[in-house]
Amino acid sequence: MDLIAEVFDDRPCQLGEGPLWHPEREQLFWFDITAGRLLSRVEDRPLEWLFDEMVSAAGWVDRETLLIASESALFRFDLTTGARDDIVALEADNPANRSNDGRADPHGGFWIGTMGKAAEPGAGAIYRWCRGELRLLHADITIPNSICFAPDGRRAYFADTATHRIMTQTVDDQGWPDAAPEVFADLTAEALHPDGAVIDAEGALWSAQWGRARVARYLPNGSLERDISLPGHHTSCPAFGGSDFASMFVTTAREGLASPGPQEGLTYRVILDATGLPEPRVIL
Predict the structure, then answer these.
(1) What is the set of active-site residues?
(2) Cα 18 to Cα 30: distance, rounded to the nearest angstrom
(3) Quick one: how far is CA 57 from the chain centroid?
(4) Chain segment 27-82, per-residue pLDDT in tens
(5) Which member of 24, 73, 169, 236 has the greatest number of CB atoms within 10 A?
(6) pLDDT score of 2 more than 70
(7) Strands 194-199 and 247-253
(8) 3-class DSSP assignment, residue 161
(9) Contact 235, 186 (CB under 8 A)
(10) In 3D, which of 226, 223, 201 has the Cα closest to residue 215?
(11) Is-above-0.85 flag for pTM?
(12) Angle at the Cα of 61 (from 123 to 135), degrees rounded to 5?
């Protein structure tokens, strides 16, 4: 089956990231991190919300509410009124850092990574917020990415992009890690940089690979099954959506490109022969 990427949204992002398909609204949301923008569209109508700081990832709480990660907090955001209600500070005492990749887990929690604004080595971390508690899970992270979860909710995945490795670890029945991380896929030999990732209904991991214009599918045993080419050089994060969850939306970025072409930084859609799962609700 030939898979062709089409432009879903032609607004160029400097650092497109964090696509989220809201299953109740049947609507895609994503971010332009460094511009402080939350983007969406309803049919042919583009939507945009601006913030006074960088924003990078979200989970859905209910039909009208997102949980958004910014450089200073996790906050509740009302899509109808635009009201913001901070829930917990996120390294707010460190203005050199910002949030990056994040995703809701099947237990109602939310994993979120932080990093230095200039990707300083080891400046970031990965946290989990769940039912009022923000807990540090992994320290000394340079570029946190690939946060996603097995369909049964008993395994988490993440990466420090700078290490070229996607990691995995088991979690308990409350969603907290209960074992040390181990290597899921080592991409060092190919010098690949794993960025955002998402798990499909069969438990395979789809990895956007920064600088390689592709998303690659890794089976549950960590072996590469295939890859899909995209027009944007810096593919940053995939998300499943559409009425049957057979559409993959992929954000891209213009950041770091000396002469970005018109295809760079756009958000793409690919119709797959695989399906994803609805993103779980964040429980506040």
Answers:
(1) 195
(2) 5
(3) 6
(4) 999 999 999 999 999 988 999 999 999 999 999 999 999 999 999 999 999 999 99
(5) 236
(6) no
(7) unpaired
(8) helix
(9) no
(10) 226
(11) yes
(12) 35
